[in-house]
Amino acid sequence: MPDPDFEQLQDVVRDRYDIEGLVGRGGMGAVYRARHRSLDAPVAIKILPVPASIGADELARFRREAMLAARLPNPHIVPVYEFEIRDDLAYLVMPLVEGVSLAQRIAEEGPLPLDAVKALVEQVGGALAFAHERGIIHRDVKPANILWEPANHRWLITDFGIARHVQPTGDDITSVGAVIGTPAYMAPEQAAGGDLDARTDLYAFAATVCEALTGNRLRPLSDRRDAVETLQAGPVRLPARLAEALAAPLSLSAAERPPNMRAWLQAVGAAERPHRRALTVAALAAAAVVTVAGLLAVMLTPSEPVPAPREIVVVFPFRDATRDQLGHALPAVFEEELRWVPSVQVVPVAAVAGAVGGADLVTPAARDSAMQLVFARFGASGMITGTLEHDEGTGLRLSAQLRRADGTSTTVPTLHGVPDSLAAMVVTVVLGMFELAEDQAPYRPAMPGGGLAARMALRVGDSLFQASDYDAAIDRYDRVLELDSTYALAAFKRTLAEVMRAQPTRASRAVRSALDPVRRYREYLDPLNRDLLRVYEVLAVEGDVEGAHRLVTDLVYRYPLSVDARFVKGYLEFYFGPLFGTEPGAARFTLEPAADLNPRFAVIHGLLAFVAFQEGDNARAREELRAYLAIDSTSTWAEAARLADSIRFRGLRATTRALLRLEERPAATLELIALAGKSLSLEAAERKLADEAARALQDRAASADERATAFRLRLGNALGAGRAATADTLFREAGRRNVPRAEVDRAAVLLAVTGLRAGAVADADAADAAARLVRDTAAPDGPWLAARWFRERDAAPARRARQALRRLADAGGGPALLALSLLEDLAALDRLAAGDTLAAYERWASATKRFQFEEVPFGLVASLWPLRLTWARVAAARGDYDEVVIATATFEISPGFMDQVARVIGLPLRADALDATGDRLAARTLRRRYATVLRDATGPWAVVRDALRARSGAP
Predict the structure, then answer these.
(1) Is the domain of 238 the same as that of 169?
(2) Is the residue at 583 inside a domain?
(3) Roughly how many angstroms between the first and final C-alpha of the chain, as a whole number?
């Protein structure tokens, strides 16, 4: 089919789009760059081949099925805004993706790095799974249909539904049994024109992944064995387990492939993780029993069905003829009510506002065009529209309609009422639109007292929360609760604001005091927020960070448009990911869609900036910092963000100015800067700033708590960078600076029992400190340190310390969680002394799955790093290198500030273990990174630095 000229295409779409130029041609037609006139948004228009003989019924089917397949609300699927056939011209309107296809990347770069392919597998595989679970198969998965968008660091799959209906190089609508697709990626059943299912896409995607890793296309109808040999012979060295897992979908028989995309993704993830060595026949037998029991449980337990997809509903800005801001608040009121409708997933109001931007929503044509674009942008199946006007006198008149994608609609009779009855009117509208009764579980109309004033205060509180102004947000939520003490959503959001404003150095008191009151509101929260509350309870009450991540991951799966669920998941991944085997970089793929849905949520941009810093992407980091500061320019976090921007991006003069003005900064800002010193990715000037911030805090410390905090900050950063002489000085000056005795005692014994002792801590000093800690039960780490010190020296005080730790464990509350884990550490040491190393490993593995989570960021041992360090040393001595890799996972990207103290021993052990398990590139990179951190190391740690440099090949 020849390219239509600009005049012909422009004539067809001139009422909405201006054609700007040809982007390119593919097997399925030409693609043009265009711009939406009303929204001033760039789009891509793809021209599709249409046979002259096509009939009206086929045209209707073509349009209906193409739109069904295209409306998939997933951040890694390119959506379709419009589909039309006019004047013998069929075209699709899509967002313009600024990037290149996977096929182009392979052609230009050759084989892709393993990290890039991992992201490809995770993102596109997840998108395909999302579609498959909704009954949609792509049928033409290949590198040309996968796009790389550098600006957002994401992979996208395009042409969903098009391959299902259009020949890739022909002119006919696909008939039953017709063969479509590309031979090199085509499964046998597809090549034979047989029945297809999700496993057909799985075959094609696995072939695509193999090509990305090797740079070469597999021969048509390659089987699993061919793929494994190709992968292992390729330039990217893959462990055998991973190569086998990646090639599993390439079995020629569909029955021998993984059953679905998610099962394959899980198998690939499991193959990436190091596995434990089975060291004894008894251990193998026990594992076999457990495996059989597990298989029986799976066979006898019905599998949970995939949840039915919810109807995606958009609340479009109402035509507002009121004399105030009621119309502006109305969509948010609808959003709150719609969360109670079990069959509905509501698009965030902020996302809709961002999509329409400054578009003209007054004239009917422009409003209809914007509606159509929003409909397609979010894959909506329904849209609520209407008008809010002042009635005669002082009342309101609300007219509302639910438009559906299939062309049907439901109109609710016009309602009249006073402004304070607006919420009640919205409830009536929602009940009528979705044919619900007020007492129909789980629907519970969100009709708090306090009238419209409470609703407006909640909206203001939400805006302040998203702008990181947590103090002001709490004031507004308190105002809501003054108007109605039973308003559950306000109570829950107040709790989140309390959690967010808590300084990491004193988080325990704030988090627990905030969480307890809101739990009595549980039954009055909508289902999504009730589940989010459960996530916080699992964290605080059970200490199960991994379990909380599983829960919120399920929430994101069930509510993919929920910004709050994505934020909580990304927050856990960034701050606590290493505790459950996830790198903080995974947060990027969770948070980027959340930023798209609500670009005014400041802390999401802040987290994305931190992720970009860790990944070495300075351009993206600066972009996210600027996005953050455009929303929040006054908070403690904003001040820290400006400092980061100055030092990383504005040169020596800005760095010098920032250092000279540190004394002027608030203590909270200085704490944030000092805490950042734990990161391995800091540049020299940034590390200097962290040190100076801690020094400034120590110089101005007035209370005992402030002196203890500053001492720990300085000690942690000194030992993390191997500056043993600085640590010695801190201990010698602790008395003169009035650092609380308990803080010094804990630090002294901790360094002694972990083998990280600074020169100033002699045996006699540690012994005296340990004796005092036997009697100090203010926190679990005191008696645990005493028990560790005395366990091989003096049985009586060791026993008393252990008993004190047991009493803390039995007392309940947050500290009990830490006490239980520390008791497991002592039990592990007992098993080790008895010669049962496997049992010790299992004890340490069990202990490090339970946390007093709010203490992890700044607690002395709350991240349980001393347990991991002992575990790693024992495993290294025995040559159990897989075990070392598991034990040292948190030292490279530390969830806790004090984890960095263990690096001088833990990271060299990790590098050696990575070498021994075949990951030499990762080992060399790690040695270089940490040698840079140790540039100013003194004493024995200077020797460690020199050894790391020598083994990494660094100058």
Answers:
(1) yes
(2) no
(3) 60
CA 635 vs. chain centroid, Å, equals 24
| Per-residue burial over 348-367, b = 16 or more CB atoms within 10 Å of its CB, e = otherwise | bbbbbeebbeebebeeeebb
Distance between CA atoms of residues 251 and 637, nearest Å: 52
- 372 pLDDT band, cuts 50/70/90, is confident
pLDDT at 879: 93
Residue 306 domain-assigned (yes or no): no
Q: Give how many domains the chain has, as a whole number.
A: 7
Find the mean pLDDT for residues 651-665: 72
Bond prior to 258 in cis (omega within 30° of 0): no
Range(s) of the domain holding residue 703: 634-720
The confidence score (pLDDT) of residue 762 equals 66
Q: Mean pLDDT throughout 771-787?
A: 92
Set 140, 526, 825, 936: catalytic member = 140
Q: Indicate if 653 and 748 belong to the same structural domain.
A: no
Assigned token pair, 73: 């609300």
Q: With residue 890 as reference, give the H or E element that holds it.
A: helix 889-892
| CA 731 distance to own-chain centroid | 40
Burial 687-711 (b: 16+ CB within 10 A, else e): bbbbbbbbbbbbeebeeeebbbbbb
Mean pLDDT (the chain) is 81
Least confident segment among 260-264, 483-487, 889-893: 483-487
Dmax (CA) for the chain in angstroms is 96
The residues that bridge with 82 in the sheet, in sequence order, are 93
Q: How many CB atoms lie within 10 A of CB 795?
A: 10
> What pLDDT is recorded for position 164?
46
Is the pLDDT at 901 greater than 90? The verdict is yes
User: Which of 40, 61, 95 is the endpoint of a domain?
Assistant: 95
Contact present, 862 and 575 (Cβ < 8 Å):
no
User: Is the same domain home to 247 and 358?
Assistant: no
Answer yes or no: is 470 within a domain.
Answer: yes
The CATH number that applies at residue 36 is 3.30.200.20
Say yes or no: 694 and 710 in one domain.
Answer: yes
Q: What is the β-pairing status of strands 100-101 and 146-149? A: antiparallel
What pLDDT, on a 0 to 100 scale, did the predictor assign at position 794?
93
Taken in order 54, 59, 62, 67, the sign of the CA dihedral is: positive
Considering the domain architecture, whether residues 714 and 766 belong to the same structural domain is answered as: no
Per-residue pLDDT band for 795 (boundaries 50, 70, 90) equals very high
Q: Are residues 231 and 147 in the same domain?
A: yes
What Rg do the C-alpha atoms of the chain give, in angstroms? 30
CA dist 952 and 948 (Å) reads 6
Q: Which one-letter DSSP state was computed for residue 766?
A: H
Which of the pair, 914 or 274, is modelled with greater confidence?
914
Of the candidates 913, 932, 927, the residue with the CA atom closest to the CA atom of residue 274: 913
In DSSP terms, 95 is beta-bridged to: 43
CB 360 within 8 A of CB 427: no
Q: Is 583 left (phi over 0), alpha (psi -120 to 50) or beta?
A: beta
Helix (H) or strand (E) holding 311: strand 311-315
- At CB < 8 A and 24+ separation, what contacts does 518-524 make? 518/488, 518/491, 518/492, 518/494, 521/486, 521/488, 521/491, 521/492, 522/488, 524/444, 524/486, 524/488
pLDDT at 916 over 50: yes
Residue 140 annotated in active site: yes
Q: Is it the case that residue 356 has pLDDT exceeding 70?
A: yes
Joined together, the tokens standing for residue 387 give: 């008008």
Q: What is the pTM of this model?
A: 0.71
pLDDT score at 575: 86
User: Is residue 127 in some structural domain?
Assistant: yes
Indicate if the pLDDT at residue 298 is higher than 50: no
pLDDT above 70 for 281 = no
- 432 and 493 together in one domain: no
- What token pair was written down for 557? 């799966």
pLDDT digits (tens, 9 = 90+) for 607-632: 998 888 877 788 888 899 999 999 99
Residue 797 has pLDDT above 90, yes or no: yes
